[in-house]
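Human:
If only I could read backbone structure tokens as easily as an amino acid sequence. I am handing you a single protein, as its sequence and its fold in token form. I hope you can help me see how the letters and the tokens relate. Thank you; the sequence and its tokens follow:
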Amino acid sequence: MSLYAVYVLILLAVPTLGVSAVLALLAVTGRDGPDEPLAAGHFVYQQRTLWSAAVAAVLGGLLVIVNIGVFVLFLLALWVLARGVFGVLRLKAGRPIDNPRSWLF
């Protein structure tokens, strides 16, 4: 699956309530990343984004019981959208992700 397709699935994660994120996670998990340095950095960035989002979504779902889960899920939605947009813009410009293992951008 191309890098752009995974980014589209990441950007559609919020309106589809995570269904597309699960598909994207399946697309990037269990396979070797590309050999080209630009694509490899974006691939790691996508993996990191999707796995972090999956863990945060589970924690947010559990924290709904104590009334802070909705806030956690809202922040997660903003974070996923921001990382998806940032990744697409960097990929479109032909620029690598400077630190693909970072929690931010």
Remarks:
- DSSP finds four helices and no strands in the chain.
